Amino acid sequence: MISYVKGQLTTLDEGSITIETGGIGYEVLCANPYHFQDAMNNEVKVHTYHYIREDNQSLYGFKKREDKQLFAQLLNVSGIGPKGALAILGTVSVPEFVSAIEQEDDKYLTKFPGVGKKTARQMILDLKGKLIVWLPDEDNEDTLFYKEDLTSKEKRAVVDDAIEALKALGYTEKEVKFVRTELEKAKHGSVDDYVRQGLQLLMKS
């Protein structure tokens, strides 16, 4: 599996970019290749998903790791292939998509190319609750489970992890500042509980 490609960005066209490294040019398919335009002829690191089938091997590239993760999750949904997943990523930010899934907003989801009501409901069924656990450090697994008697120190640690998760979804420091204050007032819960509450607050603000 090719996790990422780092090298010189040599060409860019409507559907892909080419990165040269070690004398090899890798064609990388992208939702919006022009996001990389500022790096033309310079070194660039692109997070990649290596799609392998009997009749096809392709590299799909993303500027952010969470975009790659969402792409991989979308491929697990029945009725969505690489082209469909790429089309979704080309028209929405990760936070917006996560919010739509968590709120079960199938009307919003059917706005994406090739997504009907049946596929939208399938996305909600398959993805709800699975997208909010993307933390910046993949090796740092959440070990603080729900309990009523969290100490103040433990609760601060859980809230801190939830805030970092929201930042990883694309929200800014300014946006999550208000959320932190509200979460500190909330009842004890797990990191996932607080992230869900945070997303709801951000959608209302």
From TrEMBL:
Pfam families: HHH_5, RuvA_C, RuvA_N. GO terms for cellular component: cytoplasm; Holliday junction helicase complex; Holliday junction resolvase complex. Gene3D superfamilies: 5' to 3' exonuclease, C-terminal subdomain, DNA helicase RuvA subunit, C-terminal domain, Nucleic acid-binding proteins. CDD domains: UBA_RuvA_C. HAMAP family: DNA_HJ_migration_RuvA. Homotetramer. Forms an RuvA(8)-RuvB(12)-Holliday junction (HJ) complex. HJ DNA is sandwiched between 2 RuvA tetramers; dsDNA enters through RuvA and exits via RuvB. An RuvB hexamer assembles on each DNA strand where it exits the tetramer. Each RuvB hexamer is contacted by two RuvA subunits (via domain III) on 2 adjacent RuvB subunits; this complex drives branch migration. In the full resolvosome a probable DNA-RuvA(4)-RuvB(12)-RuvC(2) complex forms which resolves the HJ. NCBIfam families: ruvA. This is Holliday junction branch migration complex subunit RuvA.
